[in-house]
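Example 3.
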Amino acid sequence: MNPLLSRRSVLAAGAVAAVEVLTSHPALAAPRKRRVVVWSEGTAPKNVYPHDINGAVAEGLKPLKDKGWEIVTATLTDPEQGVPAASLKKTDVLIWWGHMRHGNITNEHVKLIVDRVKKGGMGFIALHSAHFSKPLKALLGTNCGWKGGYVEDGSKLNMIVKDKNHPIAQGISDFSLPHTERYTEPFEIPEPESVVFDGQYIRPDGSKESSRQGFAWTVGKGRVFYFQPGHETYPIFFDANVRKLLCNAVEWAGKSA
Ligand code: ZN
């Protein structure tokens, strides 16, 4: 027997065994974790949001960990405004809450986000006052203002599931938020693919007003969702229904077109 040949076949057998170990080991064979980054600007009052909006939203997304999601928080004062190119590249969904600091976001970072959505298929979820954020305005291409105005009078909000078949609405029934800030129609946006949630405000004097609350679009390869509730003086991101629908929204937005 040629000693070299026999040594080679022993090595080959070893290699086959190693491949079998690798592919049969669940931890090694598991798919890449999906990644959601929850960004907020750090201006929410500490008595309502001790860990800012991003902390409360990230806490509500914890059920996604069992579905293979990594949940990361980021803020404006982080390096590269919390959205470095290297981070965006491996991010499947970016959630954005801003209010006072929209103007601080550099156009370079806005471009990175928009490109990552349109070309890379990253999902983008804008919350409440982020309707005026630079990334959402750039993605939708409209002014994104609520032309009827903004009134923080503690109105009650009845959330109405309008598109019952939409993935973001799964497991959600109509529900109420005891207090909200009223954003009044019309809303300057392109026609959405779906109005997932409608809403009705009950003003302090008992009068009623309708306003849409949840919108879905596809922009390039990416999916975009805007959710209207979320004023920083009300604990809306601790609400169980809001947390559940945001989990759904992350799963939906994480699928590129
Ligand atoms: Zn607000």
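Residues 32-253 form a domain with the Rossmann fold fold (CATH 3.40.50.880). Residues 128-129, 181, 231 surround zinc ion (CB under 6 Å).
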